[in-house]
From TrEMBL:
Signal found in the keyword field: yes
Transmembrane region(s): 578-600
Protein name stated in the entry: Auto-transporter adhesin head GIN domain-containing protein
Entry keywords, A to Z: Membrane, Signal, Transmembrane, Transmembrane helix
Span of the signal peptide: 1-17
Source domain of life: Eukaryota
Length: 630
């Protein structure tokens, strides 16, 4: 069938050309020692060798012989309309297990194919032994199931190419320059190790492996890799895409022009082991999509990343710091073995995998999740917001760190003017020197492993529930707790380790709508481990209520280690009222006593008067009687 298609092609494209056909009867003579020379007439039908403008056909596809067939063309200086070779049916020598194929070798030739060079099921070797003006020019090169070697000082130029063939491969060696001026499709393995250029100037597809240890130039609008590939040095004049989850490695550098870019798609990978444009700077040249990966060496400055992307940037060494500036990519991850610096950037996940590395936040940035085995430095006047669960071996905090979810660290050091805001748990030992610590966990108990506050540091709880797993030391500073409820069974701060609380400023705000405390209402300030020798010097003078006045309370420590604040009622009358009441009471008592004395005396005087009258009357009566008697 393909034989007839070939003739149809010839009829349409080459009306004035002749078809020169190989004489298949001589194939038994075409051995590796004495290959059939295509410049000889006897190997062609009718002893008619091809001349300029002819179409050459070598069709061995119907033969299944038990030996390989060798053809050679030396100094083939000719311009053909087309050249077609269909190799013999593939077979294997039963004794040597050698694959039996048709071999075509073209040496030191100045060959032009005006239309199509089509070779199938064969082995093609084109070689130029010395530097000269010889050139292989082919309009359309088709290689199907063919092992090809292009070597020596060869210059081969095609308009279009199609390489197909599954497990077959093409080697480009020596000083060969291979150029395709338009579209190219490579569906067989390409091994490019020559010192010359491998160049394509049209849309180019690599669907099988491409390995180049030399220089390649892709000048077309699109170059698409969908198979594992490695390139030493690449010049890119258009767009390049990496698809199908494959990896492309560039060992030396990539040179791009102003309109070039590289898109990494479908979970694919681009390894850059050196530079771009001889610089370690990225400005929108690379696009990450579909959870793909970009591997770069340390030392890059990435200042722009264009539209929204999705993928991971991997920094493969720790030789230098890598900087990201003004990048808003909430779906891009960073994985680094070395130091990373962020300037006003947003990322999904940042992972520092070396315990000797650091993450510097030079200007305010946002990270969904941080995993840092080294040190995180947040400088003064700068903020870092972590929205998801995060960890860092050490945090040096001179600016502001907001942890909206769980935060784990070996130690957090809060320096002057530094501030830590936590909406969840801080599984870390926190050291604060004149810094601020804020806990605001709306749905659960706030958590800290240990807290040590020195000098004028502050601790603020917007919800009255903080659990400290180990030690709590706060000799000076300010403690502020909001939304406190009376008579709760939970302490405002529970301390399982050692407690050292000095003469701090303690401000309490009762829950909104809370009624004024009554007698014996209680707030458990601290719950401590009573088996330890805790040092707690807080007293009534240290505590104030932001929304209450004129309340009386005592600080009482019970046998379980709780430090309780217990209210007691005071009189509702003012002092002057009390004095008046006392004076009035005393006056009433005095008047009552005086009145009682008066009435007692009056009653006694009345009794004495009556007795005197009775005595006088009787005496007078006796006197009268006496006179009468006389």
């Amino acid at each position: 069938m393909k034989y007839y298609l070939f003739f149809i092609f010839l009829i349409i494209n080459n009306i004035n050309s002749f078809v020169i056909t190989f004489n298949n009867s001589v194939i038994s003579e075409c051995t590796s020692i004495t290959p059939c020379d295509l410049s000889k007439r006897n190997v062609w039908e009718n002893n008619e060798a091809p001349i300029d403008g002819d179409d050459v056909l070598i069709d061995l596809s119907s033969y299944s012989v038990k030996y390989s067939i060798y053809l050679v063309a030396n100094r083939l200086d000719i311009e053909l309309s087309s050249f077609t070779l269909y190799g013999q049916q593939q077979a294997t020598d039963s004794d040597t297990l050698e694959e039996l194929l048709t071999y075509l070798t073209i040496n030191n030739s100045n060959l032009t194919i005006i239309n199509q060079f089509n070779i199938q099921n064969s082995v093609l070797n084109i070689n130029e032994k010395k530097v000269n003006n010889n050139k292989i020019s082919i309009n359309n090169l088709i290689s199907n199931q063919t092992y090809t070697t292009l070597g020596g000082f060869l210059n081969i130029e095609c308009n279009t190419t199609q390489f197909e063939g599954g497990s077959t491969f093409t080697e480009i060696i020596g000083d060969t320059n291979f150029t395709v001026n338009s579209d190219a499709s490579f569906d067989s393995v390409i091994l490019h190790s020559s010192s010359g250029f491998f160049t394509t100037m049209g849309t180019t597809y690599f669907t099988k492996e491409f390995f180049s240890s030399s220089i390649v130039h892709f000048g077309g609008n699109q170059t698409i890799f969908s198979s594992l590939s490695t390139i030493n040095t690449m010049f890119l004049g258009g767009q390049m895409s990496i698809t199908s989850g494959v990896r492309v490695t560039v060992n030396n550098y990539i040179q791009l022009n102003s309109r070039s870019s590289i898109a990494i798609l479908q979970k694919s990978q681009l390894y850059l082991t050196n530079s771009i444009n001889n610089k370690l700077i990225l400005n929108e040249e690379i696009v990450l999509l579909d959870n793909s990966f970009l591997y770069i060496q340390s030392g890059f400055i990435i200042s722009k990343m264009g539209a929204q992307m999705n993928g991971t940037i991997i920094i493969g060494d720790a030789n230098d710091q890598t900087a990201f500036s003004n990048i808003e990519q909430p779906f891009v991850n960073i994985l680094s073995q070395g130091n990373v610096t962020l300037f006003s950037s947003t990322f999904n996940h940042v992972n520092i995998i070396s315990n000797n590395a650091w993450l510097n936040i030079e200007s305010s940035s946002f990270i969904n999740s941080l995993s840092n085995q080294g040190v995180t430095n947040i400088y003064s006047g700068v903020s870092l917001t972590l929205s998801g669960s995060s960890s860092s071996s050490t945090v040096n905090l001179a600016g502001t760190l907001t942890a909206q979810s769980y935060l784990n660290a070996h130690a957090i050091y809060i320096n002057n003017n530094g501030a830590l805001y936590s909406n969840d748990k801080v599984d870390a030992t926190i050291y604060s020197t004149s810094g601020d610590i804020y806990f605001n966990s709306p749905n659960s108990t706030s958590f800290a492993k240990s807290i040590s506050i020195q000098e004028s540091g502050t601790l603020t709880l917007n919800k009255p529930s903080l659990y400290i797993q180990n030690n709590f030391a706060m000799d000076t500073g300010s403690l502020q707790i909001s939304s406190v409820q009376l008579n709760s069974f939970s302490a405002l701060i529970q301390i399982d380790g050692y407690a050292n609380i000095g003469s701090i400023s303690f401000v309490i705000s009762l829950n909104n709508g809370q009624i004024k405390p009554r007698n014996h209402d209680t707030i458990i300030l601290f719950s401590t481990n009573h088996t330890l020798n805790n040092l707690i010097n807080i007293n009534e003078t240290n505590i104030k209520f932001s929304n209450l006045q004129d309340v009386k309370f005592n600080i009482i420590k019970d046998s379980t280690g709780n430090i309780n604040l217990v209210f007691y009622e005071s009189s509702s009358f003012s002092t002057w009222k009390i004095i008046v009441i006392v004076l009035v009471g005393c006056a009433v008592i005095i008047l009552s006593i005086i009145s009682a004395i008066y009435f007692i005396k009056k009653r006694k005087n009345s009794s004495i008067g009556e007795e005197g009258i009775q005595f006088n009357t009787k005496d007078k009566y006796n006197r009268y009687n006496t006179f009468g008697d006389q």
